[in-house]
Design goal:
Blueprint lengths: L1 H12 L3 H11 L6 E4 L6 H10 L4 E5 L2 E4 L16 E3 L5 H6 L7 E4 L6 H9 L3 E6 L2 H14 L4 E4 L14 E7 L14 H4 L2 H18 L3 E10 L9 H10 L13 H7 L1 H7 L3 H13 L36
Parallel strand pairs: 5-6, 5-8, 6-7, 8-9
Antiparallel strand pairs: 1-3, 1-4, 2-3
Helix pairs in contact: 5-6, 10-11, 10-12
The protein binds S-adenosylmethionine.
S-adenosylmethionine binds next to helix 5 and strand 6.
């Protein structure tokens, strides 16, 4: 997956026009409005029927994800106030799924605000969730979102890189590190990034991400799983970060997940997708997953069990087909 990142990065930095045009075109389009249907309330298919009955076109993207034909005010969505549905990109919906939480687990969402993934984790299983964010004001959004979903977590305004100040010493079975990043993969949703981001930001963010990962790692239970996620397309924040982490932590391992491996292929070369995926519908789905919703995985982290057998474990990083600065 570092190859994927390098290709994208090179495509942006060099004059690889087809790729650059592709990334540019999609980063300048209006993003779609994608919903996550709360699996405690019903399925994506049944919600699409409800939408259609109210005159709105929508389609199931897969799992709990539904894309509206035309974006609308959330207040107009049936069941929104009751927590039946949330707005969340298709790519972002993969994170909580990949953490494969189960009832009774102790889970940490280390960078939780505004709470999109916290809510999803809590919908998936009856877990004991700690939702942490350094920004107390943004943490209020987590409280609001969880209140609407009628789900509970322990909220803490604290620095994930300084667990001494907030950790009770009990290990977590799962940790989600959805770290602050350059957001170079979500330019379409945040166009100001093109003007605000500076080249020197990447190194600084990389150091911050590494410090956070190192600080969180000892909090993970033996055999636990930590998921690393960014919304950046930069190798420094993705594969290179993972490689460096694995070098620093001999008890960590990276485990691949086959479920989504086709997605980055869709970004890199449609011809590769054509070869591998004959179904046009499937090809379109994969392309939209990457190009419209953004984000796909790159890296994983895990942890060896103390008895030396390898724990199934992984982490994620996300990229999307948009680029910073040079595309507009
Ligand atoms: C990418 S956003 C998280 C999005 C969130 N996981 C979701 O799905 O809604 C990154 C978050 O990290 C928080 N953050 C930045 N530095 C932090 C730190 N040192 N400790 C904890 N949170 C931090 C930011 O305030 C921001 O809310």
């Amino acid at each position: 997956w570092s190859t994927v990142c390098c290709v994208i990065s090179c495509a942006i930095k060099t004059s690889c026009w087809p790729m650059r045009r592709r990334i540019t075109r999609h980063s300048n389009r209006h993003p779609p409005m994608t919903l996550r249907i709360n699996c405690r309330h019903g399925s994506a298919e049944s919600y699409v029927e409800v939408l259609q009955a109210s005159g709105r076109g929508a389609k199931v993207l897969g799992g709990a994800a539904v894309r509206l034909d035309v974006p609308c005010n959330v207040r107009d969505l049936p069941g929104f106030a009751e927590g039946q549905v949330s707005v969340q990109d298709f790519g972002a919906q993969q994170a909580a799924l990949r953490l494969d939480v189960a009832d009774g687990m102790r889970v940490l969402d280390a960078c939780a605000a505004p709470g999109g993934k916290s809510g999803h984790l809590l919908e998936l299983a009856d877990i004991e969730l700690t939702a942490l964010d350094i920004d107390a004001t943004r943490l209020e959004r987590v409280a609001e979102n969880l209140s609407r979903l009628k789900l509970n977590a322990t909220l803490a305004a604290a620095d994930a890189a300084k667990p001494d100040s907030w950790w009770d010493g009990k290990p977590f079975d799962r940790i989600l590190a959805d770290v602050p990043c350059s957001a170079s993969g979500v330019v379409r949703r945040n166009p100001d990034i093109k003007w605000l981001r500076r080249p020197e930001d990447f190194a600084a963010l990389g150091l911050q991400q590494a410090a956070m990962l190192d600080a969180l790692w000892p909090l993970l239970a033996s055999g636990g799983k930590m998921l690393y996620a960014t919304c950046s397309i930069m190798p420094e924040e993705n594969q290179q970060q993972l490689d460096a982490f694995l070098k620093r932590h001999g008890d960590a391992l990276s485990v691949s997940s086959s479920a989504i491996t086709a997605l980055p292929v869709a970004i890199v070369s449609p011809s590769v997708v054509c070869r591998k995926i004959t179904s046009h519908a499937m090809r379109r789905l994969l392309l939209s997953a990457v190009l419209l919703a953004g984000r796909c995985w790159i890296l994983r982290t895990g942890r060896r069990q103390s008895n030396s057998s390898c724990a199934a474990a992984y982490g994620w990083s996300w990229i999307s087909a948009s680029c910073r600065g040079r595309s507009s």
